[in-house]
Write a structure and sequence with these properties.
This protein is α+β, with helices and mostly antiparallel strands. It is about 35% helix and about 15% strand. It has 19 helices and 14 strands. The radius of gyration is 26 Å and the shape is globular. One of its GO terms (cellular component) is filopodium. It is found in: Cell membrane; Cell projection, Filopodium; Cell projection, Ruffle; Cytoplasm, Myofibril, Sarcomere.
């Protein structure tokens, strides 16, 4: 049997390091042979297995299962553990082989994970040895199906910062200068009776009454009416979000909905049209009429300008992501990498999303027009577009606290079925990876359930810990040291596919061979800054040669040179 050190297998360097030290909340974890323990985490069972490592072959080890994770420690070495996987990351558990299977390591379990990994464990065939561990894994990886609590409800971690207090909608809207003479805060949804997937507090036009909102809700999918997400601090053009109108094949109209959109348009006197961005491909929006949906036609909404952004639905995205998984795990074929990546269409989808968000941001910032964004139900593509547009427009959201508020507002509060320029964002790559990992881990209550109403009923803020508690109690680990706060600067990404790259440090992080080739994120950013500095100096020198005035340390740069840095920082 092949032997392997833990460093050759799936354990991520950050994971291994975290097991050697005090946990991030400051509470020391139990570091016994049975693995680390969080407060509230309890052991369920353990079993000797053979882990089929896709990179270095079979590893004999002991698999420990708790109410939070599966944890594998090698029996052949005393080095760091090989696997530490939250059970919430598991999407499927299948039996591999049968009692009559022949061949080494042909009998066991095959586990598919939401973080692109696939884990295979071989067990002894005698006495149905996998039955117990299969049952235990299934029960605790999918606890709700067995009337068991999610780990978030038994997690007893304590942090110095209360992450549940990070987002206060009234304070966030006040930061934006709201309410004002055109916009008011409505509590019509305080009991979630108007729309059960919307937050309790909504910002709507001052001239629209609560009764108006109730009538409009009957003509919008899932009652998700147009409400304000963000308003420009200077020109007061707004970003609104909603769901599709219920036009249907008969071409139904709603005078209340049409009047409401006119009221929204009239809050901004700088343009005569309200811009509507429908995230869907036009053909899909037409097809949605067959199921009662549709879009804002010119006949019914003559003062609106409608554009389709051609972003595909979640089913197409999932298939594209499945193809990405196929090419990044477990092995990457470097000889065919570019063609394989192109065949997934993943970067094409990212390009369309970024291009759409740029159009939204530019229309608000430069076009001085208020914008209404929606897709079908208004919570997948809609939130992606509004979030990205607000990141481009508002420097506050590029800080750690601001980004947390943006996620809490646009994704969590408004409901969701659940590489950048190095100085523009306060948070680093570890921050984004931590959010993505805990989206599935079930360690925190932040991303549980689908809407604010359900979270209120389950009292998540009282019964669970927020992921923002972890992050804000350890900000140094998630902070970009090169961050330069510029709240009023609008940034736009380059959306050409040739400038887009797959996020290797997330999608291919489990492959040790690829990891070894990747520079540390901070090192990479440092090198990028050095390159920018060198380029800047070179351009200054060229300008000095082109002008008769020789610059000294106290000289003012010649006309034009001061614009070099802003131009270089336009795109991320």
């Amino acid at each position: 049997m092949a032997s392997s050190s833990a460093s050759d297998c799936d354990a991520h360097p950050v994971e291994r390091e975290s097991m050697r030290k005090v946990s991030q909340d400051g509470v020391r974890q139990d570091m016994s042979k049975s693995g680390p323990r969080l407060p509230g985490e309890s052991a369920i069972t353990d079993k000797e297995v053979i882990y089929i490592c896709p990179f270095s072959g079979p590893v004999k080890g002991r698999l420990y299962i708790t109410n939070y994770r599966l944890y594998l420690r090698s029996l052949e070495t005393d080095l760091a553990p090989i696997l530490d996987v939250p059970l919430g990351v598991i999407s499927r558990i299948e039996k591999m082989g049968g009692v009559t299977s022949r061949g080494e390591n042909s009998y066991g379990l095959d586990i598919t994970c939401k973080d692109l990994r696939n884990l295979r464990f071989a067990l002894k065939q005698e006495g149905h040895s996998r039955r117990d561990i299969f049952d235990v894994l299934t029960r605790h990886a999918f606890p709700l199906a067995y009337n068991l609590p999610l780990f978030a409800f038994v997690n007893e971690e304590k942090f110095k910062v209360d992450g549940w207090a990070i987002y206060n909608p009234v304070e966030e809207y006040r930061r934006q200068g709201l309410p004002d003479r055109h916009w008011r805060i409505s509590f019509v949804n305080q009991r979630y009776e108007l729309c059960d997937t919307y937050p309790a507090l909504l910002v709507v036009p001052y001239r629209a009454s609560d009764d108006d909102l109730r009538r409009v809700a009957t003509f919008r999918s899932r009652n998700r009416i147009p409400v304000l997400s963000w308003i420009h601090p200077e020109n007061r053009a707004a970003i609104m979000r909603c769901s599709q109108p219920l036009v249907g094949v008969g071409g139904k109209r709603s005078r209340d909905d049409e009047r409401y959109l006119d009221i929204i348009r009239e809050t901004n006197k700088q343009t005569s049209k309200l811009t509507i961005y429908d995230a869907r491909p036009g053909v899909n929006a037409v097809a949605n009429k067959a199921t009662g949906g549709g879009y804002e036609g010119e006949d019914a909404y003559p003062h609106a300008e409608l554009s389709f952004l051609d972003i595909h639905n979640i089913h197409v995205m999932r298939e594209s992501l499945r193809r990405v998984r196929d090419i990044v795990y477990p092995h990457v074929e470097e000889a065919h990498w570019l063609s394989s990546l192109e065949s997934t269409h993943w970067l094409e989808h990212i390009k369309l999303l970024l291009t759409g968000a740029i159009r939204v941001a530019d229309k608000v910032a430069s076009g001085l027009s208020s914008v209404l964004v929606h897709c079908s139900d208004g919570w997948d593509r809609t939130a992606q577009l509004t979030t990205l547009a607000m990141l481009m427009l508002d420097g506050f959201y590029r800080s750690i606290e601001g980004f947390e508020i943006l996620v809490q507002k646009e994704w969590i509060s408004f409901g969701h079925k659940f590489s950048s320029f190095p100085t523009a964002f306060e948070f680093n790559e570890c921050f984004l990876v931590a959010i993505l990992d805990h989206l599935y881990s079930c360690r925190f209550g932040t991303f549980l359930l689908n809407c604010e109403a359900a979270r209120e009923r389950q009292r998540l803020a009282e019964r669970t810990v927020s992921v923002w508690s972890l992050i804000n109690s350890n900000k140094d680990e998630f902070t970009n040291p090169f961050y330069a706060r510029e709240s009023n600067r609008v940034i736009y990404p380059v959306t050409s596919v040739r400038h887009l790259e797959l996020w290797v440090n997330y999608y291919i992080r489990w492959n040790p061979r690829i990891r070894q080739q990747q520079p540390h994120p901070m090192e990479q950013r440092y090198n990028e800054l050095l390159a920018l500095r060198d380029d800047y100096i070179k351009k200054l020198e060229e300008l000095q040669l082109a002008t008769p005035t020789k610059l000294t340390d106290s000289s003012t740069p010649p006309s034009g040179s001061a614009q070099i840095a802003p131009r270089m920082q336009t795109h991320f």
